[in-house]
Amino acid sequence: METVGAAQPVPRPGLRERKKQRTRDALLRAALDLFTDRGYERTTVDDIAEAVDVSQRTFFRYFASKEDAVFFAPRLAESHFTEAVRARPPHEPPLEALRRAVLESWHTIGEAIEQVVPLELHLRTYRVIESTPALLAAHLGRSAELEERIARIIAEREGLDVEADPRPRLLVAVFSAVIRVTERKWSVGDEVSTEAMRELTAAYLDQVGPALLGNWRTG
Question: Are 132 and 138 in contact (CB under 8 A)?
Answer without folding.
Answer: no
